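Batch manifest, entry 17 of 40.
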Amino acid sequence: MTIKRVLSLFFIVILLFNFLLADEGMYPISDILKLKLRSKGLKIDPKELYNPDGTSLIDAIVMVGGCTGSFVSKDGLILTNHHCAFGAVQAASSKENDYITNGLLSRTRGEEIPAKGLTVRITASYRDVSKEVLSAVTDKMDLAERTKAIDKRMKEIVSDTEKKNPGKRAEVSEMFAGKSYVLFIYTNLKDVRLVYVPPRSIGEFGGEHDNWVWPRHTGDFSFMRAYVAPDGSPAEYSPGNVPYHPQRFLKVNPDGVEEGDFVFLLGYPGRTFRHQTSFYLAYEENHRLPYVANLYDWQIRTMEELGKNNREVAIKHDARIKSLANTMKNYRGKLLGLKRLHLVENKRNEEQLLQQFIEADPQRKAEYGSVLEGIGKVYREMSDHAEAELILDYHRSSSQRLSSALTLYESAIEMQKPDIERLPAYMERNVAETKQSLRQGLRNYYEPTDKAFLKHTLMQALALPENQRIEVIDKQFKGRSELEIDQTINQAYAQSRLTDESLLLASFGKTTAELEQLNDPFLRAAMMMYPIYQRLRETRQQREGALSRLSALLVDVKQQFLKASFVPDANRTLRLTFGRVKGYTPADATHYGPITTLRGVIEKTRAEEPFNTPQKVVDLHRAKDFGRFKHRKLNDVPVAILYDTDTSGGNSGSPIINARGELVGVNFDRAFEATINDYAWSASYSRSIGVDIRYVLWVTQKFTGADYLLNEMGVQ
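Output type: structure tokens
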């Protein structure tokens, strides 16, 4: 055997190892009992984690907004992240009652404040519906028809399920594109209230400076409570509602963890993309990630400047800045990771090997030979139009005024259709949430910011190359001076009435003719822009149809090639991940231990945000008043922990659970090197970050004096 042949085989082995390794991590609940977790370090029966025939730990896990949380008492007390509660705290705050800065404590249940905009979702059951979904597809359909048929069948399944299960929410989740689908039924609790949120100087200590960074010293936790009607059914907020009694809640272990301990997380991770091709990764690296990161960077700086001398304005911006900054830094990390790990190049090498495998057999070649090329063709088309399409996406979402107008105009069209044929936002089951979103947009609305964002995307559109021009925008603004554009924008805002909440909500679902009678400049703009967005939606349906069919074939042939089954990418359904408390080496001669302490908080403290630790914390540390929460070896209160579980966005707030099934921390972040997790996972650098339960309890008891919360959790 030649040296070249040996090296080629070695290269294949290495690629296969990485391929298989990257597929591990976020396991669907259906896989939990197959994982042999006792051999990994679990000390309880795996059926304690998931028992399809009874209650188990998964019954204590909830989705809170876009995050995860867990029940920690029989009276519906929920532990999640500070940043997951942030939007609700902002909605409750004012210049006079600045809960964002000062924190919030409800000493009685009567004082608990509604967490506006938040619901709690609990997974009740699931079943595979792949055959039902794909039965809607025929070989004679074109690509857009295929997408529409699958979408309609999924809606029909959801509608039928919710009729049979009053009060429940149903969702069909795609596990492998064009191949497998699972129906999830959820209990949806609508009355959620804020119980305790630490001050920002603890809950967001280090701010964006420390975000996605280790070592970390952030007390990123909050307590909420779920309520139901007196008969136990889900209900909107009412003073007469009672605490929800979960089937299961997690026992809190105040002794925390040690380095090397086995831990696992249950939660609702967002999207991962590990089964995607090099074509997808190249699109992300060259187009979407840099565009969004740069846009959000500009928007953050604009909001900070507009709110720097006015706390009332800053409160309106706080949640949005926090969200955009988190995404921006994540995307910057992804871009660095893509380049550092040469992910696109490595994927191409893997695909070359896969293509060689396909072409080695005539039958495989006939069935799969054009799969990769077909996927590449779709992404080349997307790349050719990327700039214009991204501007259109963010032109709508950046301006609340334009977004509201487009929502009203879409509602006028969609509400005339049979419910099952509407876009999801306008189906009867979702109308209340869509209207709530309109209300929420008004609460955080600040006109100078909205004007600046609208103008920014307009100017981007006017600078597009000739092959990507947006005709409607050109017709209105091309050739005009910046002063003339400013005048047009100012005039439109002065004439528009879409900040009137009663008018806005009353206009939802009206006919297009009725909307025209309002003579609102933003509604006129929406009417002109709508055909462009409709064409873009249809184009994407064509692409999705192609990728759905091709991706299903790709998974089939990859499984043949690797002789292995795959874990589906995360898709905001309940997942398990496990690992150990473990440090890492991000660079030469640099090793990070896995536990930080209160001493580190004090060392970072200075008299300016975001490192302005409350004086009481400093005094308690100086007095070594650690109570029972002192780490024996470190002789201090542990603050944050590091572990090698596989997490993604949506795992914020996931409980960190020890080998005996006890809660020992709350997940909130990843190390900067692990921002690439969504595309690839590595045992060397993928690390997640959580707040140690001892710091949660120490802050709650010693700093805040909320001993009653510890008593409720059974912590003595």
